[in-house]
C-alpha cells in the first residue's frame, strides 16, 4: 500500500472488506473520529457523529469549531469508525482478540451547498434517530447559520474496511475453554424529561434494539 492508496491491506489481507461492508460500518457506527493535521504538523483528532449520505459522509458541529473550520479550509483528513462485535477468548492471552468491523475514509471535506443544507441536516438526524426529522419543526435560519455541515466524498482508492469474525485459533500446548462472546448495542428504556406521548422514532428504536414486543 502506498501513501496515495488506501484500498489494499498489507497485513491480514483476507480481512479486507468491500464497499458493502464500508456502508454497513458507517451506517451502524454513527460515531467515529475525524483526524487531520494542524498547520504546524501536529495530529488533531476529534470524536464526532457521522452519517452516510450515499457516496459521502456528513459531519457537523458548531460553525465556530476549530477542527471543522480547519478541514473546511482544505486540510486533508481521515474519518475512522470501529464496531466491536465480540470478545474472542483463547487458551492463551497472546491469542485473545476481538471480533470487529472497521472503516477508514480519507480525503478533503467540502462545505455542503447552502441549498442542500436543510436536507443534509435531516439526513444526519435521521441516521442517528430514524424518523425524528418528521416529528419536529423545521430548522430556523439562525440554527442553520450556527451549524457547520461538511461532506467527505467516498472515492475509490481512498477508503478501507477490515473485519474479523469467529472464534480463536488453536494454540500449541494450551488447554481450557475457548470461544467468543458476542457484543451488541441496545437502547434502554427512555428517560422522560418532559411529559407527553413517546415519539414514534424513540419508541421504534427502543423496541427494535431491545427485542421488546409491542403492547
UniProtKB/TrEMBL annotation:
Pfam families: Pyridox_ox_2 (PF12900)
Superkingdom per UniProt: Bacteria
Protein name (record): Pyridoxamine 5'-phosphate oxidase family protein
Family annotation (InterPro entries): Pyridox_Oxase-rel, Split_barrel_FMN-bd
Signal peptide residues on this chain, from the entry's feature table: none
Annotated PANTHER family: 5-NITROIMIDAZOLE ANTIBIOTICS RESISTANCE PROTEIN, NIMA-FAMILY-RELATED PROTEIN-RELATED (PTHR34071), FLAVIN-NUCLEOTIDE-BINDING PROTEIN (PTHR34071:SF2)
Amino acid at each position: 500500500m502506498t501513501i496515495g492508496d488506501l484500498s489494499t491491506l498489507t497485513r491480514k489481507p483476507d480481512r479486507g472488506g468491500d464497499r458493502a461492508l464500508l456502508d454497513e460500518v458507517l451506517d451502524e457506527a454513527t460515531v467515529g473520529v475525524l483526524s487531520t493535521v494542524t498547520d504546524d504538523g501536529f495530529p488533531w483528532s476529534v470524536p464526532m457523529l457521522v452519517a452516510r449520505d450515499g457516496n459521502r459522509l456528513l459531519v457537523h458541529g458548531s460553525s465556530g469549531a476549530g477542527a471543522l473550520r480547519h478541514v473546511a479550509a482544505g486540510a486533508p483528513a481521515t474519518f475512522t469508525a470501529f464496531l466491536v462485535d465480540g470478545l474472542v477468548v483463547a487458551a492463551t492471552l497472546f491469542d485473545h482478540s476481538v471480533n470487529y468491523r472497521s472503516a477508514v475514509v480519507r480525503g478533503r471535506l467540502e462545505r455542503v451547498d447552502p441549498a442542500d443544507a436543510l436536507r443534509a441536516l435531516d439526513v444526519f438526524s435521521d441516521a442517528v434517530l430514524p424518523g425524528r426529522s418528521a416529528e419536529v419543526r423545521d430548522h430556523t435560519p439562525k440554527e442553520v447559520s450556527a451549524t457547520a455541515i461538511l461532506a467527505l466524498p467516498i472515492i475509490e482508492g481512498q477508503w478501507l474496511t477490515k473485519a474479523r469474525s469467529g472464534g480463536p485459533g488453536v494454540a500449541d500446548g494450551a488447554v481450557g475453554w475457548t470461544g467468543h462472546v458476542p457484543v451488541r448495542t441496545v437502547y434502554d428504556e427512555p428517560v422522560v424529561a418532559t411529559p407527553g406521548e413517546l415519539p414514534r422514532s424513540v419508541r421504534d428504536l427502543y423496541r427494535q434494539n431491545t427485542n421488546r414486543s409491542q403492547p
